[in-house]
Design a protein that fits this description.
Length: 88
């Protein structure tokens, strides 16, 4: 038996990648490319509002707040840690 410790989200992502589970909405919302882009900009010292401007996200939309929360979660190592660990 080969077991390792992981979070629920890591387990879900693993099951998705191995085809054991159908894609969930939360996995299709953001791409790895977007997360890498965000990580690079945060590591370069960009402010959240500047990153959102570069992505052409209007401040009046729901997506603005969701992406801002995503950036906070990435920076605080609460999500997408396998990617963000490479940047900060």
């Amino acid at each position: 038996m080969n077991l390792e410790w992981c979070t629920r989200s890591e387990n879900d992502l693993h099951a998705y990648k191995k085809g054991l589970r159908k894609p969930l909405k939360k996995f299709t919302r953001y791409t790895e490319d977007l997360v890498i882009f965000i990580c690079i900009r945060i590591a370069e010292g960009y402010k959240y509002k500047d990153i959102l401007e570069e992505l052409k996200i209007n401040k009046q939309t729901k997506r603005y707040n969701k992406l801002k929360e995503l950036m906070r979660s990435i920076k605080n190592k609460q999500t997408w840690t396998k990617i963000s660990d490479n940047y900060f």
